[in-house]
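Lecture notes, unit on protein representations.

Consider one protein chain, 226 amino acids long.
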Amino acid sequence: MANDAEKQEAARASLRYVRDGQIVGLGSGSTATFAIRMMGERVREGMKIRGIPSSIASRDLAIELGIPLITFEDAQQIDVTIDGADEFDPHLNLIKGGGGAMLREKVVASASRQLVIVTDSSKQVPVLGRFPVPVEVITFAEPLVDKRIADLDAKVVQRQDKSGKVYVTDEGHHILDCHFGKISDPATLARTLSEMPGIVEHGLFVGMASIVVMAKAGAVEEFRRP
């Protein structure tokens, strides 16, 4: 419950970056959900924003809350995106994708002038790698990608859903959760994964976050990319 309180505090603090008239990227995951709900309250109070959601779950929540939605057919530039992360390091490199939405999340982040990450204090690490790196793969290439990532000295686990079946992303792909241990060079690993045929996207977000808003023990800290 302490983490939930921190998530709510971080989400509330992040809304200072959302202004009337903006196009807002709507992230995915538990902390981003708090932020979306708070944006919904502001929309009901009269704030004019348009959202581009990064997952089906975020889309459905935004519709429920009455947040007007658009797609990339309507606009190709997002003013600010509010999203969560599974880990962030001192350089604001991230691991994302614990909720399985990193493909759309990275597309939305890439189109954003400002990416604001909201987290509780458990997500701050000195070096990335405590959390596995999610890798989204096409099913045809999954055995090949599994072997090639394992050859990088990673433990590779196919993600399953709560019922024990293979997890399927919003785009119909599978996810391999890859345990690399401490990742001393996130940028190099990100390039290696991006260049591997069969990988659709991975959960390393390097040099993308503008600001991390983190709540800890009743206070809110902000970190900006060096």
